[in-house]
Write a structure and sequence with these properties.
The chain is α/β, with parallel strands linked by helices and 423 residues long. 44% of the residues lie in helices and 20% in strands. The relative contact order is 0.15.
Length: 423
């Protein structure tokens, strides 16, 4: 079936889960049936019907929502799903466990795809198994379209585009700052983290993926100048503040480096990027950075030990399907800023971008980001020279995503940074 003959623009796969319902809430609240042919997908018809009823009752525009039934473990049903829509927007994780057959089905059908995964080891597997075939079929398999990793990846793209337009030079050094954030954690998110650590405990390729800063680059190009994520407190090279390691750096840094590689190294092969948490100046900033570094280090050690990881999963982490309350999500917020330093013919320059929202980063804002990524793919609002493949938000969609995020209420801005501006 050609793309133009497919009955749906977007299928939200996993629409009965916490994240899937939020994505469906966003799309039905933002668009009408005349603007978007939307379907809800999953394996349990009764639960899907309840979600449909809630959505229809909550809007004036939507009289009904089609249901697409399938099973993540049934390849035939996933192939039928992929052939029915222009875009599959999936929240079903852990992706290491449930994601591969759906990616395979979308690649085979030439169907665009977006997800929320932060599972670096699984992304590497998808690149090695499906990138070349996806290029041939024209499928855009766009991973990490939530808080992992749109603010970092799109923020860097904004900085680089501004620098190239204004100074005719890219930024050779980029720093991603997780400035502020507050929100809840769901059982699905923790299950994804557990799955990634379990993969690394048994698979040498997965372990190498987590060690190599360039593990998401194309084959033959998995080396470079970046040493990997920061692991201890450091003074910042661009701003006069202390910084701590960021818990999101292992994902976001690799995604940004893949964007550079897939786009043909527009920011140079010496391009360096890192993500950190700024903690302030003076002794207070140093102490806060040290505390964060110690906490993350202890967490990494705990998750690396099988019995401890199993105990946390069984007795501490929320169950899959559990998530933050509406009140917690409404009280959430985040700010991610990206600073880039480059050298123009008349001297050095610094460019800064900001992506922020007054919503829970991992759920409310992530639902907006994933939903708008799906809309860009469905409407072919793409600014990228890459025709298909296993891609990133910057290389698979590009600048049009920034405008869509602005339209749904996120702050998305970029400008030159001067010495007179305060942090």
């Amino acid at each position: 079936m050609s793309l133009t003959d497919r009955p749906y623009d977007v299928v939200v796969w996993g629409a009965t889960g916490v994240a899937g319902q939020l994505v469906a809430d966003h799309l039905t609240g933002q668009y009408t049936p005349e603007e978007l042919s939307l379907a809800l997908g999953g394996r349990n018809e009764e639960r899907l019907r309840r979600v449909e009823t809630r959505l229809v009752d909550g809007t004036r525009e939507w009289d009904d929502l089609p249901l697409v039934l399938g099973d993540a473990t049934d390849p035939a049903s996933l192939r039928e799903l992929a052939r029915s829509t222009r875009v599959v927007c999936t929240t079903v994780g852990p992706y290491t466990t449930y994601g591969t057959p759906l990616v395979e089905a979308c690649v085979e059908a030439g169907t665009d795809y977006c997800d929320l995964t932060g599972e670096v080891t699984w992304i590497r597997e998808m690149i090695d198994r499906y990138h070349d075939e996806a290029v041939e079929t024209g499928a855009r398999i766009v991973h990490s379209c939530g808080f992992d990793s749109i603010p970092a990846d799109l923020g860097n793209l904004l900085v680089q585009s501004f620098a190239t337009d204004e100074f005719d030079a890219p930024c050779e050094l980029v720093r991603i700052y997780l400035e502020a954030g507050s929100g809840g954690v769901s059982g699905g998110t923790m299950a994804s983290a557990v799955a990634m650590y379990e993969a690394a405990s048994t698979d040498p390729i997965a372990r190498q993926t987590l060690r190599n800063p360039y593990s998401l680059a194309p084959r033959g190009e998995r080396a470079g100048v970046d040493p990997g994520e920061q692991r201890r407190p450091k003074r910042d090279p661009l701003r006069d503040v202390w910084t701590a390691p960021s818990p999101m750096a292992p994902v976001n840094e690799r995604v940004v480096r893949r964007s550079n590689a897939v786009l043909g190294y527009p920011w140079g092969r010496e391009f360096r990027c890192s993500e950190v948490v700024p903690t302030g100046r003076g002794l207070g900033g140093a102490a806060a950075a040290s505390a964060i570094a110690v906490g993350l280090g202890l967490g990494d050690v705990a998750m690396s030990i099988g019995p401890v990881r199993e105990g946390l999963s069984r007795f501490v982490f929320p169950e899959p399907g559990e998530g933050p309350t509406n009140a917690q999500m409404d009280a959430g917020h985040f700010t991610v800023r990206v600073f880039g330093r480059g050298t123009a013919p008349d001297g050095p320059f610094v460019v800064a971008s900001e992506i922020s929202a007054d919503r829970d980063p991992g759920y409310g804002a992530t639902a907006q980001m994933l939903g708008e990524a799906a809309m860009c793919l469905a409407r072919e609002e793409i600014d990228s020279p890459v025709p298909g493949g296993v891609l990133t938000p910057a290389s698979g969609i590009g600048a049009p995503l920034a405008e869509r995020l602005r339209e749904v209420g996120l702050t998305v801005a970029v400008a030159e940074w001067t010495d007179t501006q305060s942090d």
